[in-house]
Design a protein that fits this description.
mainly beta, 14 strands, 6-stranded mixed sheet, 2 helices
Length: 207
Amino acid sequence: PTDANTVRLTQGSFLTTTQDSTVLSINLTDADTNLLKYKTLVATSNLNSFIRITEAAILDMNYNPIQDHVQRVKNFTEDKTEPRITEFEFNMDSGVLSLTFSETINSSSMETSSIALQSSQNSAIESVTLTENSTTTSDNGIIVDISVGISDRNMIKNLTSLCIYEQTETCVLVINVSSFRDMNANTMVPILASEGMEASSLKNDST
């Protein structure tokens, strides 16, 4: 197998089974899970879901190593979990709006018209919806950096209470379900205008 269709589990992934048994359950780390979702040639259906176990993986009750072998999945459940944004930062100086997600995101699925910034968490006293002038060159992953277009930035700068003076409470994110999709085309958990997400970091414009 090649790197494109293989994910080797790290030591962070662990057995959830506490007793000796013929059935073992493994809990994958977020990093291993996100890498698995990133690689679109593996574990997207029962046709490309196989596990390889080497002799070093486990011992039987008489300390004999397991045989090195490959096994195809018996039951496959696809990813249906809606991704969510966990935090975001906005650098008004560089114009980079950095979004962190709960899982690997297909960055090319971004719809800027579904992303807005407003001046408070529970109301849109002042707000700007991004346009096609804002783009991203980020790879698929849990962090997507949006280069906010000059015209979009100027609209923000023209407002008196939106994303000002490094006051994070004045820079609040709102998105709808179609703003992004994950690697299995699941839409986003929306962030409503009535409960917007405050920036975790806001850098002032110095130019």
